[in-house]
Automatic annotation (TrEMBL):
It comes from the Bacteria. This is DUF2285 domain-containing protein.
Amino acid sequence: MAELTPAVTDPLIWSDQVTPYDQQHFITYARLLDAEAEHADWHDVARIVLRLDPESNPDGARRCWQAHLARAKWIVTTGVKQMVEQSEETD
């Protein structure tokens, strides 16, 4: 189940399947995509959405933000389709 502010892992472990981590972070992913659509500064997004400190660790915070944003994009393109197909198989 998605949580409002779950802790993020760094590095993000990539999978070709939707993972429990993804399911827990659906809201995080939506917030990242919304922030990108609004052209929000990545520093602010890392601080507010990912709860990271980009001032004390700018490279790490940026890397974590980029990885989670890439995962969010994967979820809305490939991951959702995968979940629908799996759901249809169980019906």
